[in-house]
Amino acid sequence: MQVYNLGNMDCTGVKPNVCTSPDPTRYTPQEWYVLYNIFAINQVFLSLYQAIGNANTLASERVGAIVQLLNPPTTENVLANDLLAALSVGLSLLAGPAGVFAGTLVRAAQQAPNAGRILFPVGTTDTRVAQWANIANELSSVVQNYQTQVSDVIPAINNDLDTFLAFTGNGDFSVNPLPDLSEESDALLQGLTTFIIGKALDANNIHLSRAIDTNVQELQQSAGDELAFDTGCANDYDAKGICGPYWYDGTTRTTYTLNDYNNMAKSYHDQMETMFGNWTTGDLLFAGASRCQASGGLKDGNLANTIINADASNYVTLDCLSSAKVCTFNPDDQDVEREFTDCDSQPDYVSKGCSNECGDSSGSVFQINVPNGYIGAYLTGSSANQCVCHD
């Protein structure tokens, strides 16, 4: 920019109030267009830098609350770089006008790998670990590291012609007013908190379980007394898509639940209400994990193969952020050995038996203990000599 004698203006990094919009009367239209895009890139990433800074305290508070809610083992480790990657992909979760522009950044980053690797540090080689006991403290360093990387994006774009054209060629930065991302801290954190929840569930041996082509609320309303037990879904789903211990994905007609392999009688209804009301969504946690599993994107529970895509309309899809394992209930066979089609059965599945209230003293009724949130063949097809429970 010094070629155009801009005096003390400095648009080379994150420096508030030193990069201002060029005066169109001083330059040819072509010169002004280039200069305005340099200015615009600086301002957008400055506002993103500020949003990340605003997220610093919130990140520690939220992750501390997640750890308290789900109580993962304190000595389990999380890769620090995965936390950084999860925070960075939160950019692609922005909604509304900010989300449209975030789609621009994601798409441009795909076309400009040098800048993309800085903006979305997925698959890098930092293997430093953070234990759950100290994870809230670790996040401060993670947030600061991402601020530094966002600052480094500006010269990476402006100093390389191909990268500059990838970000500006579609005219996305030639708008006025420019989008301000500085107030988008909540949305940025959603990627991080979704990842943390998935890792906490996995550390506690809690799996995401699903019933494909099943709407549990329709099942409860149509079958009613014919079901082996009340699912808790006689009424409609709430605003978060929850009824009883279930979350329903209406797009794929799949019902999900959380199954605790250490305590299969436990309902996670209250925990889902808290998580989906504050930190993540059912689509990100449940459906995102299923999409990731189907694509083969997630390896060993880390983000090395996270998939981030933005199409021509800037619609962003993000899979593999939720790292918890997904298991599919066996819908057709009453199989005492096979609870799922793709996972090992829980230790107490069927074999534990039920309380004295289930069955009779003669022993003629076979007691079948299934997990809370179960949606398999024993729910819909138990016989007269079977007593199905989840206690």
Features:
391 residues; 5-stranded mixed beta sheet; 11 strands; alpha+beta; 11 helices; two-stranded antiparallel ribbon
Give a verbal description of the structure.
With 391 residues, the protein is an alpha+beta fold. 42% of the residues lie in helices and 12% in strands. It is built from eleven helices and eleven strands. The protein has helices at residues 29-70, 80-89, 96-111, 113-119, 135-158, 161-168, 185-203, 216-223, 269-278, 282-295, 377-381, and strands at residues 77-79, 129-131, 206-212, 242-243, 246-249, 254-260, 307-310, 316-319, 326-328, 366-369, 386-389. A five-stranded mixed sheet has the order 4-5-6-3-9. Strand 7 and strand 8 form a beta hairpin. Helix 1 (29-70) packs antiparallel against helix 5 (135-158). Residues 299-305 have low confidence and may be disordered.
Order of helices and strands: HEHHHEHHHEHEEEHHEEEEHE
Number of helices: 11
Choose one word for the global shape: elongated
Let me know the average pLDDT: 82
Radius of gyration: 25 Å
Strand arrangement, major sheet: 4-5-6-3-9
Q: State the distance separating the first and last CA atoms.
A: 70 Å
The strand count comes to 11
Structural class: alpha+beta
- Share in helix: 40-55%
Question: What portion of the residues fall into strands of 2 or more residues?
Answer: 5-15%
Largest sheet: 5 strands, mixed
Low-confidence stretches: 299-305
